[in-house]
Amino acid sequence: MWLDEADGFAEIFKGYLPYYLLVALPIFIIMSPVNPVAASHEFSVYRMQQYDLHTVPHGCRSASFNLEGRSLSSWSTSRHCVVAHIQDITIEQFMEVRSKAGALLLVLPKNDTVLTPEEKEHIQLLEMAMTQQEINAPVYFAKWSPEFEDIIKDLQHGFITDDKSGTALEAMFNTVSSNGYQIVVSASTPQKMESKPVTIHGKLVGRSGAAQTIVIAAHYDSAGLVPELSQGADSNASGAVALLELARIFSRLYSTAAVRGGPSLVFVLTSVGHSLNYFATKKWLEEQLDSTDATILTDVSFVMCLDSLSSPQLTMHVSKPPRAGGAANSLRSRLKVPIVHKKINLADELLAWHHERFSIRRMTAFTLSSLQSHKDPARSTILDTPSETSLKNLASHIAVTARALASHIYNLTDEENDEDPAIYDDALAVEEASIKHWYEYLSSQPRAPQIVTTSSPNAGVTAALERALSRYMDTTVSTHAIDKREPEYTLYSPVRALLYVYSVKPAVFDLILTLAIIAYLTVVYFAIQLFPRFYEEYAKLVTGKAKVH
């Protein structure tokens, strides 16, 4: 019996299946994308900086979103994610996006070396404006790719506003035919990161009986709007490289008792720099000066901090003008560099320069830098990448600093230096290959505090620097604790995520498609209903007789 029912079911399909195909196939063809592979994309994106400094929030406070992508000229509500090249968005547009848009996605330049000076300055000023604001909407950055370029072009030309369309019909057609994108980032809710800032220090002991100490310090982290893209070639890979090279030069001089200098030399590398108020230096100084058995900073002659040394002009930044006849003034006269004097303002959220941490503890300190101001946007930019010119400037500044420091330590006059310069050039010669190696290595690594202070001191950049410094002297790695009740700073994750872009049509397209499908089904329905009558008339015309049922 069930076989008879199956035959009946088959007869139904034989009679009506062609009609089903006639109805369904065109609908499927209309609704299916032309290229299913091109309908979605996946990208690695990098989240904007998020941290608290003295409980004051900075940066982006959100991570996830699922919004429609729009260009700078076509977005309008919080349901839109604005997608643009970073060089195209102005500060005024950013402020509007910050207050009204749902999310912001900025694509970095394909090659920052082809940017004009005006474009670089614009990007740096934009970065400064963004870091000074707390932003509730998610903000992400992406590296340039052909796929992103196509998406931006589609968004720029696909959504044509009414004032750009000639007629209302043209505006409607442009709206219906445009391609849209749904942009999705599924990331975890921002969480506090466990930060463990470290300080690496080593000492070259001077001649016995000489108690004076010269401190050479640099921070090796980088500051930037995007932690995962903060390479900091100039600020402050250059300072860390200069410290390592000076350590190598003077370790060779101090290795022989006959030519060992009088003062001891202390080399200090810290993992938290100006973006977080030199917290690691502050904690290290507390450990060294407030401890009863700490003797490493006994009778400090001066502290020389190294920061951003890749530009042509070298400058000495001080909080108090060097005293005439003092050690700092002696070194300055040998360096032959200008002085920029800026008093310490404890009311400011951030200290201006590294040396101010030492000056607060009543030490004579200064910072050598090729930047003329602590407010220079080049200190915290994603455009701070390595170049051959910067490398040459760095090597030149290291050579000048080494010669001036040796001249001060050994109390040589200009006449004595010039008697046989070849001797000093040989003893103080820099290894350009070593400088290049470390400069390229450090500037190829993201070194934001979110990265260098959350990884193990025995891994990554910190471990590499500790091993390098330990080749020239005994070193110590100090890990500093952050007060959990009143933390001076707090870092947040995530710093990167996966972004998915889906090709979609606008909502009005769905409405018009629905109306078109209804109209099509109506035509098919009436065609099927009227087909028998049409067939009878056709048969009568052909045979001259009416069809007999």
UniProtKB/TrEMBL annotation:
Membrane topology: Single-pass membrane protein
Cited CDD domains: M28_nicalin_like
InterPro entries documented for this protein: Nicalin (IPR016574), Peptidase_M28 (IPR007484)
One of the Pfam families matching this protein, by short name: Peptidase_M28
Keyword Endoplasmic reticulum: yes
UniProt-annotated location(s): Endoplasmic reticulum membrane
GO BP: any one term: regulation of signal transduction
Transmembrane segment boundaries: 20-39, 507-528
This protein's GO CC annotations: endoplasmic reticulum membrane
Chain ranges of the Peptidase M28 domain: 200-252
Keyword Ubl conjugation: no
Entry keywords, A to Z: Endoplasmic reticulum, Glycoprotein, Membrane, Signal, Transmembrane, Transmembrane helix
PANTHER family noted in UniProt: NICALIN (PTHR31826)
Similarity comment text for this entry: Belongs to the nicastrin family.
Stated name of the protein: BOS complex subunit NCLN
Organism lineage string: Eukaryota, Metazoa, Ecdysozoa, Arthropoda, Hexapoda
